[in-house]
């Protein structure tokens, strides 16, 4: 019996040693995985697309007109090489490109890969399918607000009172210096509660929303408060970019989690703000409370601090002051200011 026990003990010891040897990955193995991930045309196109997009497997399958099994295989290779990261949103898993490392043995390789990829244009058919996907998401958001306009405010207050994050944005406004105080834009003004704050500080305020119903509520507030310098426009921020409008200040209060492609807001802000102008964002931190999708029409379950910072820097905006507010029900709001450098 003792001999048998000793034999089993030796086998278990060798098994543990072998297991340790199998799990240890050499630097050359990791480098090979990285080059394997980058050695396929489709995977490079996926990485290019995910620079500013967060997309699910089914969305990527439609955009690239490929089978789901094949797309899952490519995403697994990219994930193993740590070139993409995943995030669960409800029952779906979304992929986005990983932030390039700033240190480590492969940092220079990954940074060079991304710097080479990013200037390349998307294929026309890929861009078209991406636009269709973004429109579907936007329609989903618009449909929610059309159907649930009356209940929205009650449900939104389960997350945060407007006054709480509005005070945070107002504090940052007070401490900010603007090129001029001619024009401010509020994206998605909701019921218009923050328009009074902007109206008292800027010569003209543009309230921009893609929902007729929400814009009408904001206009009612403006009329009630006798705000004579507020202009209401139906549309997206890109419409102001096309008009070549230049603003001193852009505010987006609790808007990003309703936007089909949140990174686009930063890109547009980089174009519409004057040099020295500021983008103010109040937004939910990353969370896992899926009920917000059904009751509040949220497309995204908040965002990490690093995610917003990376989108801003990619759009040429510089992070400035920030506040982080703990809220009821386990939510956190980040109040951030980003400046377009002079």
Q: Could you describe the 3D structure shown?
A:
The chain is 50% helix and 19% strand. The chain is an alpha/beta fold. It folds into 2 domains: 2-122, Arc Repressor Mutant, subunit A (Orthogonal Bundle), CATH 1.10.10.10; 142-339, Vaccinia Virus protein VP39 (Rossmann fold, 3-Layer(aba) Sandwich), CATH 3.40.50.150. It has a 7-stranded mixed sheet, with helices on both faces. It has a 3-stranded antiparallel sheet with strand order 1-3-2. Strand 9 and strand 10 (332-339) form a beta hairpin. The longest helix is centred in the middle third of the chain and has 33 residues, at 124-156. It is globular. The N and C termini lie far apart (81 Å).
Features:
342 residues; alpha/beta; Arc Repressor Mutant, subunit A; Rossmann fold; 2 domains; seven-stranded mixed beta sheet; three-stranded antiparallel beta sheet; 14 helices; disordered N terminus
């Amino acid at each position: 019996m003792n001999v048998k026990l000793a034999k089993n003990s030796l086998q278990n010891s060798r098994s543990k040693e072998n297991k340790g040897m199998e799990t240890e990955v050499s630097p050359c193995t990791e480098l090979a995985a990285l080059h394997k991930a980058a050695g396929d045309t489709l995977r490079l196109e996926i990485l290019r697309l995910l620079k500013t997009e967060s997309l699910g497997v089914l969305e990527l399958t439609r955009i690239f007109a490929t089978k789901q099994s094949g797309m899952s295989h490519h995403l697994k290779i990219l994930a193993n090489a740590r070139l993409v990261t995943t995030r669960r949103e409800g029952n779906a898993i979304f992929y986005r490109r990983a932030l390039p490392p700033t240190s480590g043995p492969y940092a220079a390789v990954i940074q060079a890969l991304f710097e080479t990829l990013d200037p390349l244009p998307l294929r026309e058919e890929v861009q078209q399918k991406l636009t269709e996907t973004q429109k579907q998401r936007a329609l989903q958001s618009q449909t929610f607000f059309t159907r649930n306009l009356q209940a929205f405010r009650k449900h939104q207050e389960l997350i945060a009172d407007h006054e709480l994050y509005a005070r945070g944005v107002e504090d940052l406004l007070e401490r900010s210096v603007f090129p001029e105080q001619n024009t401010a834009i509020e994206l998605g003004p909701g019921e218009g509660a923050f328009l009074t704050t902007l109206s008292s500080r800027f010569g003209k305020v543009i309230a921009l929303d893609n929902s007729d119903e929400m814009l009408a509520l904001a206009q009612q507030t403006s009329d009630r408060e006798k705000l004579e310098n507020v202009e209401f426009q139906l549309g997206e921020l890109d419409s102001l970019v096309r008009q070549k409008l230049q603003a001193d200040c852009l505010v987006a209060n609790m808007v990003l989690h309703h936007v089909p492609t949140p990174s686009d807001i930063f890109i547009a802000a980089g174009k519409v703000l004057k040099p020295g102008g500021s983008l103010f964002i109040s937004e939910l931190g990353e969370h896992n409370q899926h009920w917000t999708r059904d009751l509040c029409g949220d497309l995204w379950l908040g965002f990490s601090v690093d995610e917003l910072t990376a989108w801003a820097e990619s759009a040429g905006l510089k992070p400035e002051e920030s506040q982080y507010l703990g809220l009821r029900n386990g939510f956190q709001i980040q109040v951030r200011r980003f400046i377009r450098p002079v």
